[in-house]
Design brief:
- The protein is an alpha/beta fold.
- The protein has a 5-stranded parallel sheet, with helices on both faces.
- The radius of gyration is 15 Å and the shape is globular.
- The structure holds D-ribose.
- The site of D-ribose has 8 residues, from helix 3.
């Protein structure tokens, strides 16, 4: 799988370790993140945008975003149409987000989770398969809100 990865200064070391882990698993990694932890003036929306753009454009199948908490970078990625990004601090939510919500970008906080937990989160997320059916209907509703700002069934 081709996986885009991005991070701000808070996630440099975590990104490097997760990128190595992904390569060990046989994935191709596109690194769009900061590699200089001293560059503390960088802005997480840039990296959320880059990762989301690569996934939305079909240049990567999935994306992984890392900042201090995972929150800011996920907000940025989620502004791109077609992106379903979630912040996960444990593997159960990561797995269910892929099975039910068809998340295509996984985010977590380098200041929140340790590297071994982060690896478990990534593994569960990548191995889970979308279950379709009623979950697709709900994703279609999210897409409707994304495209129109409205949900016709509520208007
Ligand atoms: C940077 O200090 C920090 O605000 C950022 O990494 C992230 O946690 C934002 O959500």
């Amino acid at each position: 799988m081709i996986i885009a990865i991005g991070n701000d200064h808070a996630g440099v070391e975590m990104k490097q370790q997760i990128a190595a882990y992904l390569r060990e698993m046989g994935h191709e990694v596109i690194n769009t993140g900061n590699d200089d932890p001293a560059d503390r003036g960088d802005d997480y929306p840039v990296y959320g945008y880059r990762v989301g753009r690569l996934v939305a454009d079909g240049k990567a199948e999935r994306g992984i975003c890392i900042c201090g908490t995972g929150v800011g970078i996920s907000l940025a990625a989620n502004k791109i149409p077609g992106i379903r990004a979630c912040v996960c601090s444990e593997p159960y939510t990561a797995q269910l987000s892929a099975r039910h919500n068809r998340t295509n970008v996984l985010c977590f906080g380098a200041r929140v989770v340790g590297i071994e937990l982060a690896k478990m989160i990534v593994k569960e997320w990548l191995e889970a398969r979308f279950e379709g059916e009623r979950h697709q209907r709900r994703i279609d509703m999210i897409t409707e809100i994304e495209k129109t700002g409205r949900l016709a069934s509520e208007d």
